[in-house]
Amino acid sequence: MSGEQTGGEQVDHDLRERLLQLLNEARLAGAFEMLRPVLVEALETVGSTAGVDSAGASALPMRYGMIGASPALRATFALLDKIVPSDVSVLIQGETGTGKELVARALHDYGPRKGKPFLAENCAAVPADLLESELFGHKKGSFTGAFTDRAGHFVAADKGTVFLDEIGDMPASMQPKLLRVLQEGEVRPVGSNKVTKVDVRIVAATNKDLRAMCKAGAFREDLYYRLNVVTVNLPPLRERKGDVRYLVSFFLAKIGREMGREARITDEALAVLERWRWPGNVRELENEIRRAVALTNGVIGPQDLSPALRKDA
What we know:
Strand order of the largest sheet: 4-5-8-3-9
Oligomer: single chain
CATH architecture of the largest domain: 3-Layer(aba) Sandwich
CATH superfamily of the largest domain: P-loop containing nucleotide triphosphate hydrolases
Number of domains: 2
Helix content: 40-55%
Shape: elongated
Strand content: 5-15%
Low-confidence stretches: 1-12, 43-58
Radius of gyration: 22 Å
Mean pLDDT: 84
CATH class of the largest domain: Alpha Beta
Number of helices: 13
C-alpha cells in the first residue's frame, strides 16, 4: 500500500486533525457534550480519522477522554453520566492498564470541581514513612530532611480533587488518618499539633479486591465503606469487543505525531491484535503500537508485531 497522499487526502487529513483538536478543546472547556454531536458528524462527513488503519475504522467514538463503543464501555459511560454531576467519593476498580486515572480525571474535569486543583498520588510508589508527609504535609524539622514547612496534597487540592491510586497498598498506619479526613474534613501535618480544614473530593482506585482484604484484616472496613460510596468497575480490554480497532487508530495517529512518521496497519495485523487477550489492557496495546511504529517503514503487518502475539495467532 502506498504511503503517498493525494491533495484531497491531505486536506481531509488536515481537517480531521483540526476537528479532533476542537473535540479535545471542547472537552477541556467543559463544552464537550454540547459540541460533540456536531464535531463527530463533521468527522464522519470527511471520512475516517487521522491515522486510521487500512481496515477503515470510522470516526473515533470518544467520551470522557476514553475511546470505544463496546457495550461494556458504554455501560461505564452511562454510570459516569449519573455520578459526574455529584460530589460523592468514588472507588474505581479495574485491572492494571484499564484507564483508572482517566476516569478519575473525568470525574474532576466534568464535575462541580472542574477548574480546581487535581492532585494524584500512587500509594504503592511512595515509601510508607513518606506517604503521610506527601498527603498531609509536614512542619519544618519534623523529620530528617524536613527543611521547610510543606503543604500536602490535601491542602494544596483544597476545593479540588485528590486521586489516590492503588489505595489497596496504603499502609495500615495511614488508613485511620485518611478515614479522619473523610469523616472530619481536616488534616494534621506531620510534626504539628494543629489541624487544617480542607474541602476535597477523594477518588480512589485499585486493582485489588478490597472487600476480601477487609475480611482478611488487611484493609479497614470503615474506610472501605467511606471510599466506596459509588464503585466504577472498568472492563478489561478483552471484554470490550470492537474497541481494539478504535484504539489502534487513535494510537497510530498519536504515536505518528510524536515520532514524526505516519504508519498504517494491515487487516491481517489488526486481526492479530483483536484476537490477543491483552493482559496489560490499553497500556499494553499502546506499547505494542509504539513498538510497531518504531520498527516499521510505514505499513505494519503481522510480522512486525511482538513474537508472543504472532505465536498466539
